[in-house]
Amino acid sequence: MKEGPDIALLGSLIGDPARSNMLSALISGKALTPSELAEIANITLQTTSAHLKKMEAGGLIRQRKQGRHRYFNLADEDVAALIENMMGLAAKKGHIRTRTGPKAPELRKARVCYNHLAGEFGVQMYDSLIARGYLIENEEEVTLTDTGQEYISTLGIEVDALRNSRRPLCKSCLDWSARRSHLAGSLGTALLDYIYDKGWARRLNEVRVVEFSKRGETEFLARFPL
């Protein structure tokens, strides 16, 4: 096929093991330096710089400079969703790396996916909003209903401000561990910020884990029941 989107280019960029490790690390939403990414990919800094140039040219990552330092993030939520979806497909097809760490169960329970809540708790929040009619899911589209907007407003979240942002208000994102959807988009980010602001959970340093306190877990399950 000589016309249309070039999925082969994206496939080649993501398919390299070193680059896939770097992209998987950046899905945490945290900006990382070339040195940090080199350590994650287990390659030299010079080789890392070459990989970063390719991914930046391909629109997968973006660079920010602060003084003499350079930091890299995923380019946007579309890239984050692509990486998370590929992780979900890999898990579904049984392509699981055997190395596990002490945080593996915690990652499955609750973690950050770029800028929103993922894991079992992320799926529960999404399912709860769907079950109560606050969100409507129609194939790939997710819509916040009028009653949903009223409910979100009771949490102190200004939905109109979210609608006016450039990002989609609601998006579904396939959860790689639960293999079901969780909520992305500006509303997903706002709800994760709400959880932090309430003191229900905190983001653990250096990892994607979102750790809920006992009280926070109780409050979360009461706020987003099934």
Gap from first CA to last CA: 46 Å
* Unreliable spans: none
Largest sheet: 2 strands, antiparallel
Succession of helices and strands: HHHHEEHHEEHEEHHEEHEEH
The helix content, as a percent range, equals: 40-55%
Report the β-strand fraction as a percent range.
15-25%
Approximate shape: globular
Overall radius of gyration: 18 Å
Tally the beta strands: 10
The largest sheet has its strands arranged as 1-2
Seen as an oligomer or otherwise, the chain set is single chain
Please, how many helices? 11
Rounded mean pLDDT is 89
Secondary structure category: alpha+beta
Explain the layout of strands and helices.
Blueprint: H1 7-15, H2 17-26, H3 34-41, H4 45-57, E1 61-66, E2 69-74, H5 77-92, H6 104-109, E3 111-113, E4 116-118, H7 119-131, E5 135-138, E6 141-144, H8 146-154, H9 159-163, E7 171-174, E8 181-184, H10 185-197, E9 201-203, E10 210-212, H11 214-223
Antiparallel strand pairs: 1-2, 3-4, 5-6, 7-8, 9-10
